[in-house]
Input
Amino acid sequence: MSILTIKNLSAGYSETYIVSNIDMVVHENEIVTIAGTNGAGKSTVLKAVMGLLPRVEGSAVFLGTELLRQPTEDRIRSGITYVPQVANVFGSMTVYENLQLTGEICGRPQGVREMFELFPVLAERRGTYAESLSGGERQQLAFARALLPRPKLILLDEPSAALSPALTGQVFEEVKRLKTMGVAVLMVEQRARQALAFSDRGYILDAGKIVLSGTGADLLGNEEMAELYLGRHPQPQTADA
Amino acid sequence: MTLGAYTAVASQAFFSGSVLIAALNAMVVTVAVSLFFYFWVFRRLTGRSHISLLISSIGIAFVVRCTITFFAGYDQYMIQTPITRAWNFGGVRILPTDLYVVAAALVALIGAFSLLHLTPTGRKMRALADNGDLAATSGIREKSVMLVLWMLTGAFCGLAGVLLGLKAVVVPELGFELLILMFAAVILGGIGSPVGAVIGALIFGIAQEWASLLVGPPYKIVLAFIVLLTVLLLRPQGILGRIVAVR
Ligand SMILES: Nc1ncnc2c1ncn2[C@@H]1O[C@H](COP(=O)(O)OP(=O)(O)OP(=O)(O)O)[C@@H](O)[C@H]1O
Ligand SMILES: [Mg+2]
Output
């Protein structure tokens, strides 16, 4: 069953659209990856779904309701959360305060304890200011903040950005764990080969348009296209993935 | 602040002599005026640079000041306080009024910090100040938080005006010479850090008073600004400020 259906979506920051005529579907409990070159408009698609862009046209139906005319708070309440590409935690607040705040916003204060059980590292560092967390810990806090409101769908913008290859593997394990918890994931990834390897399906974006879509295996199997859009050689870290 | 002091004077003149009631009235009026300017001006400036906000607030300060002058003229007023004898603490004589002023300031300070750290609204304010975009994508409704923030700003300004008016003659320029000093204190402490602002203000105030002992009152500000320059040369982000990375 599809939970998010995007039809004919065009979006941008001003008069000109950055992405246009996007059609995308996310099914229940599925990991879907959006790949593509820098500046292709991958982040723009996620921002449009979240309601963060001044100019949006088309439709995005989530669990039967049209999202595009709702304010961001309502989209979160209906079950979508979003982890932005950069600055995805409040640096001047402690780990505990970051989660406490999230719990207060969505009315689930008990979620803080649940997240400490799911992410024991965070429980250990509860008093630490988020700005002094390591890259991996910070990403765990960002995931916990996204998971706490019990969403049906999490949008992740380049969860592996600025992480070492070893930590990338760890973060991807966390993404797979989200799936086992029954959450669907729509994820933008720069490390596309590695991400598509564990994704159910994928879309490849170029210059604001979808140029290719299919199952993760299909996209990786299409050698010609994969070389064109996913880089010439498989990245070394895919060896252990 | 100036408005707070004037409201206190007016309240004493028209309603009752009680300083407490005067202060409460002053706060009610400054909250109302603060909200008025939020809806009229600042709400439309969200997302603009710090500079445009700063210039607008200086402009609004002029508007408020001139409006006061229009109604009250340039006459000097006083906030009436009951005449009391100084208390003697082992040779150090302190007026009870001064103690009340200090106590009220401390209570306000503690109140502000508990609010920021111990209440959900306070946490939302800190989140908004930390990263407005992330706050929006986390589902914080900026408008309702800003509304509370501006009410608080108004209340604290009103209170500050009354406290200042208790110690000084109430004229339209009240607080104006303090404005520059307050900016300096905030910069010294680190912009965006409430604790920093308090520490900055304390250092600045104490440096000034020491300086007047050493070089005489007319030059005390000079010495205080030398302290400011020295600190900023060593720590450009201020004492507790965070370096904002330029991307
Ligand atoms: N805040 C903004 N205002 C105006 N234009 C923007 C803004 N952010 C991004 N853009 C433009 O939108 C286009 C697509 O940006 P987007 O962030 O969606 O790309 P991306 O595919 O996520 O790239 P990357 O891999 O670098 O994150 C870019 O050309 C960029 O210049
Ligand atoms: Mg991006």
In short: Residues 243-247 of chain B have pLDDT under 50 and may be disordered. Chain B has two domains: 2-173, 175-247. The radius of gyration of chain B is 19 Å.
